[in-house]
Amino acid sequence: MLTVNVKVVVKENYIEDFIEATILNASKSNLEEGIIRFDIIQELDNPQNFMLVEVYNSQDAPAAHKETDHYKTWRDKVEPMMAQPRSSIKYSSIFTKDTNYDL
């Protein structure tokens, strides 16, 4: 599994619009074959800061996700809402609730 955390800082006057557009994208993303889960989280102390937690079942799945119409629509819609360019960090999953280890 591959987990990608995408940090997004949204301009204050676009927070609700960003949430609406991102929920629509996440809802459709969660239906993709290559996506295990797609979560949206918002920082409590600074509500302009968001993290998209994207968990994929393969290394190739993020590229397939970026080819979907809903991703392209989201990307174009939220770009002007961002206070700075989004950034991401990729992680390899070591343990999840579905991991089977014989301990």
Give an overview in words:
It comes from Thiospirochaeta perfilievii. With 103 residues, the chain is of the alpha+beta class. It has a single domain, classed as Alpha-Beta Plaits, CATH 3.30.70.100. It contains 3 helices and 4 strands; from the N terminus they run βαββααβ. It has helices at residues 15-29, 61-65, 69-78, and strands spanning 2-9, 35-42, 49-56, 87-92. A 4-stranded antiparallel sheet has the order 2-3-1-4. The relative contact order is 0.29.
Tally of contiguous helical segments: 3
Distance between the termini: 21 Å
> What is the share of helical residues?
25-40%
Task: Tell me the name of the CATH class.
Answer: Alpha Beta
**CATH architecture designation:** 2-Layer Sandwich
CATH topology: Alpha-Beta Plaits
Pfam family, one: ABM
GO molecular function, one term: monooxygenase activity
Protein name: Antibiotic biosynthesis monooxygenase
Domain ABM: 2-90
